[in-house]
Structures are given as C-alpha cells and as structure tokens.
Amino acid sequence: MRFKEKPVWASMYGGGMLNGKEELADKTFDFLKKAMSIDEEDFLSLRGPRELKDGEWRYKYDQDGDIFEFSGYEEIYYQMN
Asked: Is 9 exposed, middle or buried (0-12, 13-18, 19+ CB in 10 A)?
C-alpha cells in the first residue's frame, strides 16, 4: 500500500493444503472465512481468533508483534482432535 507514492504497508501471505486433500478446498476456505469474521474479546488479532472449533473443524492462530510489525501462524484441522 502506498500513501503519496511512498510505501507505507506491505504484507506477505502464504498457504497451502496437504496433497491428496484438494477436494476439501471449498469447505476449508468457507471455514477460514468464518474464523476470520470472529472478533475475539481481549485479543488484538491481525488475522483470526486464537482458536475456533466447529463440528469436525478446528482453527488455531498465533501471532507475535503488533500492527507495526508482526508475524502470524495459522492452521486448520479437519476430523482431528
């Protein structure tokens, strides 16, 4: 993102799925959107809640830093404890 032609924000995101699980892509991204729409109280998240369980789906997220510089890590599990 630029302001007055100078860069003020940059972000990089990478993700993927395990080989052989491609048929779960649509359901996985639906669940990810649900997780990202949750505003967890007392957690200034730059991505999603710390954890979300919904039936056989589980989302986990952790981050370090603040709005000025942070890194985050998220995982989505299906049919796992």
From this structure: exposed
The structure's pTM equals: 0.77
Residue 24: other Cβ atoms inside 10 A: 15
The CA distances from residue 62 to 1, 43, 65, in Å, are 24, 11, 10
Q: Where are the alpha helices (H) located in the chain, listed in sequence order?
A: 25-36
Token duo for residue 67: 């709005």
Alpha carbons 74 and 60: distance in angstroms, whole number: 5
Structure confidence by residue, pLDDT tens digits, 33-50:
999 898 888 877 778 899
What's the one-letter identity of residue 19? N
The order of strands in the sheet holding 57-66 is: 51-54, 57-66, 69-78
Among candidate residues 64, 65, 62, the one with its CA nearest the CA of residue 73: 62
In single-letter form, the type of residue at position 15 comes to G
